[in-house]
Amino acid sequence: MLYSFSQICSALVDLAKTKNVDVSTLLNDLEQVNWDDLKKLNFDRVCSWCNKPYRTGNRYSRDHFCPQCWTPERHKISLYVYLQVRRAERYQLPATLTPKEWFATLKYFGWKCAYCQVGPYDCIEHFVPIKQGGGTTRGNCVPACTSCDKKKRSTHPDLIKSIPQEDLKRVRKYLKRFS
Fold it and tell me: Which of 20, 50, 81, 102 lies in the 20 to 30 Å Cα band around 87?
């Protein structure tokens, strides 16, 4: 496999850090460089869709899909999941939702709102709001349309009057499987 100049440079910097030497010292004596060590540094990832290891050319990439699993739709949704996970982490709450779990949830609800089951989903809705201690986990997140999201807002599910109780019961039953 051929590496770009920037990949080799960043790997050399990482190798110099692991050996506690300056990069210029490392470059002055290229015989010290174990090229197999360079191949192992920072390029291996595990695809969050198929769980197979893959090699990426950019160690700073936030993409979590191998080239075979990557699609624009998965990429867009995984970024949105990533933002919600970071939001929960800021409140020091559980933040374990993965893109694959979110896709499974969307598929279960037919890519529609979990509450009204009519409107297309527009957002990740936290059943127990983050501000009330609900994390971004598979057992707390469902798809919601804009209308239902506005009705629920950051209200605890036990206090909601604007969404029919049978809809809340159905969503609660689904989420209980993962709690």
Answer: 50
